[in-house]
Specification:
The complex is a heterodimer of chains A (135) and B (93).
Chain A lengths: L1 E3 L1 H14 L5 E9 L2 E10 L9 E2 L2 H14 L2 E9 L8 H6 L6 E6 L6 E8 L2 E5 L1 E3 L1
Parallel strand pairs in A: 1-3, 1-9, 5-6
Antiparallel strand pairs in A: 2-3, 2-5, 6-7, 7-8
Chain B lengths: L1 E5 L13 E5 L3 H11 L4 H4 L10 E5 L2 E2 L15 E6 L2 E2 L3
Classes of the chains: A alpha/beta (135), B alpha+beta (93).
Chain lengths: 135, 93
């Protein structure tokens, strides 16, 4: 389960809308206890692939996020990105390139309104949906 | 010339478990090449067969991504901090 505030959820969706027509992306900082994570901050990134079909987090944003997590006692919990014309489910590319089995992968679909936000874990190619709690 | 290498959680099991180790080498290519000798299991995650950096690995010297410093030829100075982080990428394609 991943827990975030309504404002954090809005910030994720806004990042994805601003990135259109490309996919939007960013990192999630916070605290984790086993499978449960609480988001402390949303860190938007440029999509340095500049593409509607693939994304990559800016490497400088990634390093800063890890350093900030160390400094502030957080973890990098995972990543969010948008699918502009498909459902909020990890694609084969997402599954192949998932860097960390402990991470939470938030997917935003902008295909339909209202936007759909779902979260998954990806462990050795196995995708499991998890609850998203926003308050 | 000794530098510090910070190892991400996902690579630690294949690299002896430590989060920080001391490494030596005049360039990033030297450092990564030496790591593939010490930890053969991670060879394919660090370098391509032609000796270039793996597409999905970010390597930093201090605050800079080595792709902007000459790639594997980026020089390593004494007391530099080298950080490895898997690239974060994916997408609908």
């Amino acid at each position: 389960m991943i827990t975030l505030t309504k404002e954090q959820r809005d910030a994720i969706v806004a990042t994805c809308i601003r990135a259109l027509p490309d996919e939007g992306c960013g990192l999630l900082l916070g605290s984790a206890s086993g499978p449960d994570a609480v988001v402390a901050d949303v860190v938007p990134s440029q999509n340095v692939s500049y593409s509607a079909k693939v994304y990559e987090i800016d490497s400088r944003v990634l390093l800063k996020a890890y350093r900030r997590a160390d400094d502030e006692g957080f973890e990098v919990l995972g990543v969010f990105h948008s699918h502009t014309h498909s459902e909020a489910y990890p694609s084969p590319t997402d599954i192949d390139q998932a860097p960390d089995p402990a991470w939470h992968y938030l997917l935003v679909s902008l295909r339909d309104l209202p936007t759909v936000l779902k979260s998954y874990t990806i462990v050795e190619g196995v995708v499991s949906q998890e609850d998203v709690v926003s308050h | 010339m000794a530098a510090t290498l910070r190892i991400p959680t996902v690579l630690r099991p294949a690299m002896g478990g430590a989060s920080i180790i001391s490494v030596e080498g005049a360039t990033i290519g030297d450092v990564l090449g030496q790591l593939t000798v010490t930890f053969p299991a991670i060879k394919g995650q660090l370098l391509n067969d032609d000796g270039t950096l793996h597409r999905f690995l970010n390597v930093y010297i201090n605050d800079d991504d080595v792709r902007y410093l000459g790639g594997v030829d980026a020089p390593v100075a004494n007391e530099d901090e080298i950080t490895l982080l898997p690239a974060v990428a994916g997408g609908a394609a």
